[in-house]
Amino acid sequence: MSPNEEAKRGPTPGRLAFAITFAVVMIVHILLTFYVERPGVIFSSDPISWLDFDTHIEQVWRVTEALDGWGKSWAYDHQLLAGHPNGIIFNADNKGWELWTFALWKLGLPRGLAFNMFILLSHLLVPWVVFASARLFRLDRWAALLAMTLGMSIWFFDGFPRWCTWIGMTSWAMAGYLSILPIALLYRFLDDGKAWRAAACAVVLAAGHLVHPYTFAVTALPMLAMYVRSFKQISIRRHVGVWSIAAFTVAANAYWLIVALRFWHYILDSGYCFQGGVGYLLTDYLGLIGADPLVSGVLSNRTAFRLIGILGSIVTLYFWKKKRDDRFLPFAVALGATFAVTYLGNYVWLTKQVQPYRFILPAIFLAVIPGASFLARAVRSESLRRLPRLAYVVMGIMLFVTVPALARDVLYFFPGVLPSLKPLHEVMPVPTGDQEALGEDIPGAGFHKQMDFRHEPHYQDMNDVTRFLIENDDGQGRVLVEWYVLGEHLAWRTKSQILGGFHERNLMHTAADLFRRDEEGDLPTEELRRYFEDYAVKWVIMTPRKRLEDNTDLLEPLGGIPPYDDEGIPRHRVYKTKVPVTFFAANDGRVEASMNRLEVTGTRPDEDVVLRYHWLETLVCEDDACVVEREPIDHDPVGFIRVPAPHPSNFVIINGY
């Protein structure tokens, strides 16, 4: 049986009916997109700011500034972690977002709007990529439309992809579905040898790696498997096409790969988040959050739509294997690899580094195409019409149970249409002894009251903290920020020098972050004093009830920044340190820091200068006026900057690239 014989079964509706249905699905997708991303927010000149978004804004801002000022994709960033090379490794998942933003910014869009347009693009491409991939894998247009609809449903109503788009894992969310298209294009190129398919594959694969480098982990095995299978049958021209695809992908990504390899010696362990395990097979099946919410997400784990795709794909793979269908190999390899990494990757050090549970995202999008093929086959099957009436009764009961499950997954993301339920203790008396066991916020029935998982303009407390630093920080000391989101936010929105941000940054420079050393900042008093002095900490901003606050000999409270909780405690507490604050560990003077540049004035020329900025091998003195060396320090493997005597009293250290 030919690969597309299955698609030809049953009557084919007319083109007009298909066009109307396709248009309806697309309109629904666009409406859902602008429900999730409200036009007033997405089309604002302010970038969408929340959770991981702030990390990506900070990275995009630094890289676009480096591209604009030096024509480089990285820079020595004085504003974060006492100076670190920004744009080298930690932002490997941000390259496409950076180039996109830079291009639109230089074309005249506000940089914030350009940043937001990448988010909008990630939503709008979903149906087109899934439909095109399904057609390339020889599904007929109705089956491809079904795949598109299922993919759209997973994008908006499955817990994990919705969590990714809500917190700012936009690049990975986009890579999750975009990875299917180059696999599909290579499949067809190996079959018919059309040059345009190879060219399209090269462009999409290169773009996919720019969007997120883990695209390689999703696409490499199925593409290699197809190439090996056809190795002896294809012409020299097609061999050249395959190698050209690989070469173009590497060439398009070489600019950042070379930089990453150059600074690879600074990299640290990355095996923190998304460490699942076999047990998550059960929680995903049941639609429950696992033991660690940083695995499957803090949103309710809605999985009904993905289960349809997964179960349908299992059946389809069985039939494809039985019929020797050439589509079996790429999907069996791709699905096998991504599901294996998702649920078994936590047990192997190497796969722990890629945060394995995140690979559930490409796995469920890959399952959409064979899953839709099964559903289309089932609907068209003549065998279905010959089933006894009892079978129809059983299917009717199953459908009757399935529809509410799907509806609950959809309604979860529309909290505004759900009733606001009173806690149980307000509805009926609860014995005093049972309140602790029952809790105070158990609803009497239906849904818990929940937040609306859509993006907002900048929150007022973020604005207030930003305003405080702009008005009070003179740039001659650093700001230690405990909440990682606020740290990243202040790093891109102010000119202050921040110690904090994403605590699990996989770079040695995070030694400058107190909360990387200890989650509570709970160091012995003398060690904490030494930390404040070593990193010139002038301000401390933290959430309440941190043990760090007990160090009253080192911290002067300046008050709080609202909102306040029920006990009147502000969300952010601001302190000023009681230690000498200077950027000089040896000698004295003044430092004016900016990107790629430390301007030092007023030093004693006959004494060594040691600056409390991280050393980097590319730092040099402007005009060779002095020499830059590494100064080792305790608890920090990077070290500070030493300028040995003699040197001018005024000199400038620049990033020499």
Task: Please give the domain count.
Answer: 3
Distance between the termini: 60 Å
Query: Hey, roughly how much beta strand do the residues contain?
Result: 5-15%
Gyration radius (Cα, Å) is 28 Å
Structural class: alpha+beta
Please, could you describe this protein's structure?
- It contains 26 helices and 15 strands.
- It is α+β, with helices and mostly antiparallel strands and 657 residues long.
- The chain folds into three domains: 6-380, no CATH class; 460-577, no CATH class; 584-655, no CATH class.
- The strands form four sheets. It has a five-stranded mixed sheet.
- A hairpin with a 2-residue loop joins strand 9 (590-594) and strand 10.
- The chain is globular.
- The mean pLDDT is 92.
Provide a concise account of the structure shown:
With 657 residues, the chain is an alpha+beta fold. Helix content is 51%, strand content 12%. It folds into 3 domains: 6-380, no CATH class; 460-577, no CATH class; 584-655, no CATH class.
List the helices and strands and how they pair.
Elements: H1 15-36, H2 39-42, H3 52-70, E1 75-77, E2 84-86, H4 95-106, H5 111-136, H6 141-157, H7 159-167, H8 170-178, H9 180-192, H10 195-211, H11 215-230, H12 236-262, H13 279-286, H14 293-296, H15 304-322, H16 328-344, H17 349-352, H18 360-380, H19 382-385, H20 389-411, H21 424-427, H22 435-438, H23 460-472, E3 478-481, H24 484-493, E4 497-499, H25 514-517, H26 525-534, E5 537-542, E6 555-564, E7 570-577, E8 584-586, E9 590-594, E10 597-601, E11 609-614, E12 619-621, E13 629-633, E14 636-643, E15 651-655
Parallel strand pairs: 3-4, 3-5
Antiparallel strand pairs: 1-2, 5-7, 6-7, 8-11, 9-10, 10-15, 11-14, 12-15, 13-14
Helix pairs in contact: 1-5, 1-6, 3-4, 3-24, 4-5, 5-6, 5-8, 5-9, 6-18, 8-10, 8-18, 9-10, 9-11, 10-12, 11-16, 15-18, 16-18
